Amino acid sequence: MKKAIILAISLISANAFADKNTGKIATIHTYSYGIAAGDTIVGLTRASGGCPNGYFLSSSYASEDAKKAILSKLLFAKAQGLEVKIDGKEDLKWAGSTAKYCTIYNLSIP
Fold first, then answer.
1. Bridge partners of 103?
2. What is the 3-state secondary structure (H, E, C) of the chain?
3. Would the CA dihedral through 48, 34, 64, 59 be positive or negative?
4. 83 close to 77: Cβ distance less than 8 angstroms
5. Residue 63 class from Cβ within 10 Å (0-12 exposed, 13-18 middle, 19+ buried)?
6. Cα angle at 35 between 32 and 40, to 5 degrees?
């Protein structure tokens, strides 16, 4: 029984972060109006199989405090030329495009 519970938790954890990618930030775009107002999209120098168009940060899925914290890290990493590691979720769709973007669940600077 204990093994079954551990296996179930492992499977849930594996699906929670469907995409993990590390690379330097190639692009940062923030939108000021329209359906994507307040949203930011990020492209890395290495494209990911699960998130080929990049990642997004949206008020639909993140609090304002979380958005500010992540955006400040993104800008710092871009300015310093540092690599970042992004854990993305493929199951949440960005309203600003029909292209495949993943939401940023976690951002770290390794």
1. 56, 89
2. CHHHHHHHHHHHHHHHCCEEEEEEEEEEEECCCHHHCCCEEEEECCCCCCCCCCEEECCCCCCHHHHHHHHHHHHHHHHHCCEEEEEEECCCCCCCCCCCCEEEEEEECC
3. negative
4. yes
5. exposed
6. 50
**For residue range 16-52, what is the model confidence (pLDDT) as tens digits?**
556 788 999 999 999 999 888 999 999 999 887 888 9
Sequence letter at residue 93: K
pTM of this structure: 0.79
User: Rounded to a whole number, what is the distance in angstroms from the first to the last CA of the chain?
Assistant: 37
What structural domains does the chain harbor?
A: 2-108 (2.40.50)
